From TrEMBL:
It comes from the Bacteria. This is Arylsulfatase. Residues 45-400 form the Sulfatase N-terminal domain. Pfam families: Sulfatase (PF00884). Gene3D superfamilies: 3.30.1120.10, Alkaline Phosphatase, subunit A (3.40.720.10). Keywords: Calcium, Hydrolase, Metal-binding. It comes from Gilvirhabdus luticola.
């Protein structure tokens, strides 16, 4: 078969997406869209959403019995609830996945088309967009965020001082006025209480912000160049100690749960951990415990703190009607040193190919565990394909309030699966994946089509590497027969490729992947502006 390169031009203009493509090799075909099913549950549950940072699918023992990292508390969480084996983040990197979790919308519909934000970036989510927090707040929930934000907020700027620089250098922060409140942060998006830092733990500025106020003005510059404990140079507050940040956030979360459990009102806590992302800094009493490397030690430390948090939930008497989610924002980072871990028999991505940043499964397939004693039977496993964008629709289903057309455009409720793992009422049929450089993939059933010849990220073959021109322009894998994505079948199943291509076009054009009125995708913003093959010109 002659393989023809397809080129798309996608322009967000006048509320329409104009798609022109050359040498189309397929007939257009459209799949039907599902319908929403409401489920009434009576008393609303408390909701605690724990998001790890750069934790691989194979790093939890329950998901990878051959793995070498011991995670007894997360294993117990899985045995006490339901574990999803085919769960995916909406992106293979931090910021876009966090956008999708809170908004129920794919990040590439936002101004962020590729890459991530920095600790200085402006707010990505506008106040007008519904988030899980603003949605639940309207339904009577008390809402809280603790941890790593990494979705941008607007720092106060000193007048007359150059404010150039994106935030990758210590010099970029000279114009920030740390004595004044931030704007367009978590409190403006529905969180009654917010405490955290702006970017990843290796991104300056290193300050805590509580309810829009910097808790302590930074008065020094810090950096670290150690292999595992590396972070960029930048302004640092005296009360911001990198080694203590993860324990500190858990302690804040535990205190919050203890206090809010005394209030006769449901609550939602979004606990966004900065770990085990770099800098990899296990506490002294955890160093060497995994017998693998510092990353393994760090994962074990996180597992222990999750256990402590779960114990507090039990002790406060709210366990039965508290829904706890534990997942990760993408796959394990190569900064954890895959070769070192593999030499000791541990595979952070388990059987899957790639890692953080990649379009391959290791980039976005993550552990996803849910416990809710009142509603979820113990010891269940689901192989349904779900996405982290699905949580907004799930919350809407729990409180029995339908989402509006401009809310959660890529969110499907997983509540039917939580209540009955073999339920056929879960409506998602297709999921779209996205890599750090903005490459797309689409998955339906066993079939996954990748719209680039490479990893789209950091593993081999890297984008623009020398051997790329000798590869087929697209990739097609049957994940049932080939979960490791070793055998590219592109060109051998033309009908399947055609259907997946048309689905991709339809979901881009419609501004949504759920039923409802066509929505606008946001205009150009951050990210790459030049693409080839199924790559986008903004």
């Amino acid at each position: 078969m002659r393989i023809v390169t397809i080129k798309f031009v996608i322009a967000f203009k006048n509320a329409k997406i104009v798609i022109s493509f050359i040498a189309l090799f397929c007939n257009l075909y459209c799949f039907g869209q599902p319908q929403k099913t409401d489920v009434s549950l009576g008393q609303y549950p408390n909701i605690i959403y724990i998001l790890a940072d750069d934790l691989g699918y194979g790093d939890i023992h329950a998901y990878n019995p051959d793995g070498k990292i011991r995670t007894p508390n997360l294993d117990k969480l899985a045995s006490d609830g339901i574990m999803f084996t085919d769960a995916h983040t909406s992106s293979a990197v931090c910021t876009p996945t966090r956008y999708g979790i809170l908004t129920g919308r794919y990040n590439w519909r936002s101004p962020l088309k590729s890459g991530v934000l920095t600790g200085k970036s402006k707010a990505l989510i506008p106040k007008e967009r519904t988030t899980i927090a603003s949605f639940l707040k309207k339904e009577g929930y008390t809402t809280a965020f603790i941890g790593k934000w990494h979705l941008g907020w607007d720092w106060a700027i000193k007048s007359g001082i150059d404010n150039t620089g994106e935030g990758w250098s210590a010099q970029d922060f000279k114009a920030i006025d740390f004595t004044k409140e931030i704007a367009n942060g978590p409190n403006d998006l529905g969180f009654d209480y917010a405490y955290g830092h702006s970017g990843s733990l290796d991104m300056a500025p290193y300050v805590y912000v509580e309810n829009a106020r910097i808790t302590q003005v930074p008065d020094k510059l810090t950096s670290n160049n150690l292999k595992y404990g590396w972070w960029r140079e930048g302004p640092t507050s005296n009360n911001f100690i990198h080694e203590d940040v993860t324990p500190h956030f858990f302690e804040k979360a535990i205190q919050y749960i203890q206090d809010i459990s005394k209030v006769d009102k449901p609550f939602m806590l979004y606990l966004a951990l900065p770990s085990p992302h770099t800098p990899i800094l296990p506490s002294e009493n955890w160093q060497g415990k995994s017998k693998i490397n510092p990353y393994g030690d760090f994962v074990m430390m996180i597992d222990d703190y999750v256990g402590k948090l779960l114990k507090v939930i039990e002790n406060t008497g709210i366990e039965n009607n508290t829904l706890v989610v534990f997942t990760s924002d993408n796959g394990c980072s190569p900064a954890a040193d895959f070769n070192e871990m593999i030499a000791k028999g541990h595979y952070p991505s388990s059987i899957y190919r790639g890692h953080k940043a990649d379009i391959f499964e290791g980039g976005h397939r993550v552990p996803f565990i849910v416990k809710w004693p009142d509603k979820i039977k113990k010891g269940n496993t689901s192989d349904k394909t779900i996405c982290t964008t699905d949580f907004l629709a799930t919350c809407a289903d729990i409180v029995n309030i339908p989402l509006k057309d401009n809310e959660g455009e890529d969110s499907y409720s997983i509540l039917p699966i939580l209540l009955k793992p073999n339920s056929n009422n879960y409506q998602r049929e297709v999921i779209i994946h996205h890599s750090i450089n903005g490459s797309f993939a689409i998955r339906k059933g066993a079939w996954k089509m990748i719209f680039c010849p490479d990893s789209g990220g950091w593993s081999h073959p890297e984008p623009n590497s020398e051997d790329i021109e000798n590869l087929p322009p697209f990739q097609l894998y049957n994940l049932v027969d080939d979960p490791g994505e070793k055998h590219n079948l592109f060109g051998k199943h033309l009908k399947i490729s055609n259907k997946l291509l048309q689905l991709m076009i339809t979901y881009i054009e419609n501004g949504r992947s759920t039923p409802g009125k066509i929505q606008k995708n946001d205009p150009e913003g951050y990210g790459s502006k030049t693409w080839s093959q199924l790559k986008v010109f903004y």
